[in-house]
Amino acid sequence: MSSRNLLxxxxxxxxxxxxxxxxxxxxxxxxxxxxxxxxxAPTFAENQRGAWVRQRMQQIGLADxxxxxxxxxxxxxxxxxxxxxxxxxxxxxxxxxxxxDLAVRREGRRIYGPGLGDNSLGVAGLxxxxxxxxxxxxxxxxxxxxxxxxxxxxxxxxxxxxxALQHLRDRIQTVIALEGTGHDRIVHEAVGVRxxxxxxAAPGGHSWQNFGAPxxxxxxxRLAERLTHLEMPQPRSSFNIGVIEGGTSVNAxxxxxxxxxxxxxxxxxxxxxxxQQTEAFIAAAxxxxxxxxxxxxxxxxxxxxxxxxxxxxxxxAAAAYHAAGATVAYGVGSTDANVAISMGIPxxxxxxxxxxxxxxxxxxxxIDRIGPGMCALLWLALAASS
Length: 386
Description:
By secondary structure, the protein is an alpha+beta fold. It has two domains: 3-190 and 304-384, Zn peptidases (Aminopeptidase, 3-Layer(aba) Sandwich); 193-302, Alpha-Beta Plaits (2-Layer Sandwich). Helix content is 36%, strand content 28%. The protein contains eleven helices and 19 strands. The protein has helices at residues 3-11, 14-22, 27-37, 47-60, 116-135, 159-168, 216-227, 268-288, 312-323, 337-342, 370-384, and strands spanning 63-67, 73-77, 85-91, 105-107, 110-112, 144-149, 172-181, 185-190, 192-201, 205-206, 237-246, 252-253, 256-265, 293-302, 305-306, 329-333, 347-353, 355-356, 364-366. The strands form five sheets. Strands 1-2-6-3-7-17 form a six-stranded mixed beta sheet, with helices on both faces. It has a four-stranded antiparallel beta sheet with strand order 4-5-19-18, with no helix packed on it.
């Protein structure tokens, strides 16, 4: 069935039209987004925000509301027919520490606040999608699971989505990862990521009296310089040494040092090439001086993959967002959709509104696209569950 044919019954549904009309004002969605944003939720510490979302899911009237052992919050919108379901997930966590000033301000048609777009608005959109379906008695073709998941950001390493799909795997046929911003961008290619923490340990000593003794910092800096010569595979790949730390004093030969390395590629073979090159450089550094102990721990592992732009899920998303007035672009990203794609489950990542400055204190969202973004999400959810 074509993407337009999947959407057409929902465009003509009176109940869906009433739900769409309810999004003509976005203030209720904004209020929920700010309420979510005001609850600190750094990665690995999302419990308080998750408890709030669980209560809201229960108030909405979702079925089977529950929290799993790592903090993912689940709710189900029952469908007409048995069979495999749609999962829509919005991550709870934020990059900001618990003590961050979360003050929100409005300037014109923008609302500023750290974590507001990434991903408080996504969580709010998830809740208001569930509310619209229940309030207007819209029954999807198959069950829709709404999941507010933990550990999407940084070293969370998509742990929440991995657990959610493990929990629901036999029931899920399609996955949509939901972000607060990026309403005009459909991410259907998953950037693979491998992250290492590389540490060096040495005997140390005084910079004058023990000059010539091996230094953990010197060793690590030499290794880092070699890593900057990694050969980049095609299609697009990248590397970054984001952190280097170590030593105790300017006149002490460093006993320990560490760096964090980020490797990325849109192709699984490209990522594997970067991994093999990195491990060869590490092995060479170990062999160069046996007085130094070098260890490499994997601290992030996000799988690469893609679904075609011609896949019915991608085409349906494009049709839904076009119907809401968006100019759609197609993108590549490292999102919760990575996990599903790597498992052979069709998945995309979409957003609700415009915004910018994610992961910065001056992050903002544009108010005007929230309503149309919610309409697109509603149409997409119903069509994707068909």
